[in-house]
Amino acid sequence: xxxxxxxxxxxxxxxxxxxxxLLLMIVYSIIYMVLAVYIxxxxxxxxxxxxxxxxxxxRKTKKTSSTVPISYYxxxxxxxxNKTNTKIHEHNHWIEMDSNxxxxxxLMRIKHLTKKFGKLTAVSDFSFDFYKGEVCALxxxxxxxxxxxxxxxxxMLEATSGCVILQDLDHRIHxxxxxxxxxxxxxxxxxxxxxxWTIIQKMKDAGxxxxxxxxxxEEADILSDRIAIMSHGQLQASGTPDFLKKQTEYxxxxxxxxxxxCNTESVAQFIQQHVQTVVLERETSSELVFGIKRGATxxxxxxxxxxxxxxxQLAINGYGLSMTTIEEVFLRFIITDVP
Length: 339
Fold this sequence. Notes:
alpha+beta, 3 domains, six-stranded mixed beta sheet, 31% helix
């Protein structure tokens, strides 16, 4: 029976030391662990961002401020633009500029990001800036590219081209540092939505940047400082909720709950006596929907009083009035931007 005293002594007829064997096992374990980490980082597989083979030679970059070294306004060509304009309107895309004019340089920048899965282009030349202390909603239909962008930001996917700059750090090169700056929460239970709203507001107050992806459009309208709408992997519109709503043709919609004997033409003529620019958008067996264009809202009060007085004569059960919502803005791009 071997004892501790025998670990470094040869107790066999041939030279074999148990203690040396144990030390070598420990050394080999450390070497293999370091090698495994190195290989995993240069070849992470399907999920993850690969590092160059010489990445251990990188000098560790100290955490810097939230400003970027290149002038944000010069790089984006703002110095040559008329800063009184509130948007770039190109190819029916709505991009608000004034919402960024009074903000500091971006906390995180996505620049010309593209991600392809074989022949499928999930994200195409997507560029966007995120700022400290704001909630920005990223909206889009299923397959628009929201999840792909999210996975690229947290390092689960590698972009085909383009880059993400987070506090002066290139996401592709300094993935280990940038991962420590980003938190990720998957889709939450609708039961806890109100609790999540409170948490989001607290994070915003603490100076964090919150990127919100949701299918509840009223949630995006309430919580967001800015909204970005994607379709088919591209940015279609961005700006404050108020800015996006103002780009639509109608400011209000009037919903009429009609009776079976109601005459649509008579109702339309009555409404046009008060608001001339009103347009009948759609009609069903029980409802009429009118759109009230912008610039005609000063007569809405008179229209409401008239409807209250003439409900029975017009054969309507009731009516409702609503402002333009983010859902209408969203549907406008989803319906019209069909490839």
